[in-house]
Amino acid sequence: MTEKAHSGERAQTGAGAASGAAPGTSGRPLEGVRVADLSRVLAGPYATMLLADMGADVVKVEHPGHGDDTRSWGPPWAGEEASYFLSVNRGKRSLAVDLKDPEGLAAVQDICASADIVVQNFRPGVIDRLGLGYGDVSARNPAVVYCSISGFGPEHEPAERPGFDLIVQAESGFMAATGDPDGPPAKAGVAITDVLTGLNAAVSVLGALVRARVAGRGEHVSVSLVNSALSGLANVTQQALVTGAEPERVGNTHGSIVPYQAFPTADSDIVVAAGNDALYRKLCAVLGRDDLASHPRFATNPDRVAHRRELVGEISAELRTRPAGEWLELLLDAGVPVGRVRGVLDAVRSAERAGDDVLLGAEHPTAGPLNLVRAGFRLDSAAADGDRSTAPPPLLGEHSARVLNESGVPSDRVARLIERGAVHQAPRDGDGTGQAAPAG
Questions:
Q1: For a FRET experiment, which of 275, 320, 390, 401 has its CA 20 to 30 Å from that of 110?
Q2: 208 Cβ contact partners less than 8 Å away, ≥ 6 residues apart
Q3: Where are the compositionally biased (Basic and acidic residues) regions (predicted)?
Q4: Does residue 261 contact residue 253 with C-beta atoms inside 8 Å?
């Protein structure tokens, strides 16, 4: 791929400027880094979106007929676009090519051979049969950082076991640790093992990229949903190892801290997190219950855990006497960690009202104006880009012709690939006609 900007590309602004177009313009930490994204669904695309947010030029390789599976995972839809796909694919360029076509496959092999990072989540064996496995790519590109994402890891038996988030939440103990104590195991409200895997993939890829830049040789990074889940359970996993017993589900409470849970008030629920003795005493003062602070059964956290039921009952009775808004004001003024139990939309709007730049704006060619949720980190270099806008998630094959031209495929060959259906070109690349744009 060249680092030359192309005037035929749709206009790029803000956070996506270096990702939706060729790299070299943003000053972000991954400016000039090229990523071949052979992943689909959530974990891999989430990881590569984070790389795009940091300035990498991410080429998303998709099937020319249906694209990434999540393009059809609706409702809900924004225009003709599935909200699921929109959530993890901003700032990328889409190359829609049939890997069963020899010319199309050769082009993708060339793209991987010139990339700094390759991310893939094919089933074991499939990627090697395509000549896109680590061995083949690194033979041509010794400095490549190659990330393989799977459900159960390269050594897990059976080797080709598929791993969707729901399966891994069940197999990893995540479901067993989630839910009410008297209820059944419950999955998290989001595909949490995919999200954790995406974060682990991004972190490990960046570490390997530093090594590659220093030592001149790349590395094969393996990331799995099940390992991400087991490590992501953190203190819950350690509790099981220490005790030799399965941790009990604690619902909206905490197994080791009291009070640290949801409480009803006169009108809605709040959560109170008195994570140490000093905070507990402040809570008692706000409640007007200094007797609870000095009572020997509640003086220390181990005491409070041992007498959880009695103490929670006393606190609940007090909190029910006033509405949530009053308690929030009183407890925050006293320095006690407290929050309102909000819905997702309410949470986003509340964060925006509070001054947090949660949302990015994007103008999608078919869905129209979009709000997208910013990553959990903030970069000064991103802030310098301006107006909290980003390149929207791409149309299927929106950049096919341009990316193939950049990889060295002549325009006449690109046109033939499009004509026979081996490549899909959305009518927005180059001159907007859907034909192959001249090489840049």
A1: 390
A2: 145, 218, 219, 221
A3: 421-431
A4: yes
Distance CA 395, CA 70 (A): 13
What percentage of residues in the chain have a pLDDT greater than 90?
82
List, in order, residues 6 or more apart from 174 with CB less than 8 Å away: 168, 187, 188, 192, 193, 229, 232, 233
Residue 12's pLDDT is what?
35
Tokens of 238: 């350690």
User: pLDDT class for 428, splitting at 50, 70, 90?
Assistant: low
C-beta of residue 253 within 8 angstroms of C-beta of residue 260: yes
Burial class (CB in 10 A: 0-12, 13-18, 19+), 383: exposed
Residues with catalytic annotation?
194
323: Cβ–Cβ under 8 A, 6 or more apart, which residues? 265, 266, 267, 268
Quick check: helix, strand or coil at residue 330? helix
> pLDDT tens across 294-320, in order?
999 999 999 999 999 999 999 999 999
Average pLDDT over residues 169-195: 95
* pTM to 2 decimal places: 0.88
Q: Is residue 394 within 8 Å of residue 93, measured between CB atoms? A: yes
Residue 326, token pair as written in the block = 């009053």
Share of the chain residues as helix, strand and coil, in percent rounded to the nearest 5:
40, 15, 45
Segment among 98-112, 147-161, 410-424 with least mean pLDDT = 147-161
Which residue from 156, 170, 176, 224 is spatially nearest to 196, judged by alpha carbons?
224
Beta bridge pairs of residue 369: 363
Please state which of the four CATH numbers 3.40.50.261, 3.40.50.1370, 3.40.50.10540, 3.90.226.10 is assigned to the domain occupying 34-247+392-424. Answer: 3.40.50.10540
Average pLDDT over the chain reads 89
Query: Which residue intervals of 83-133 are DSSP H helices?
Result: 83-87, 102-113, 126-129
Q: The domain 269-340 belongs to what CATH superfamily?
A: formyl-coa transferase, domain 3 (3.30.1540.10)
- Joined together, the tokens standing for residue 11 give 């206009």
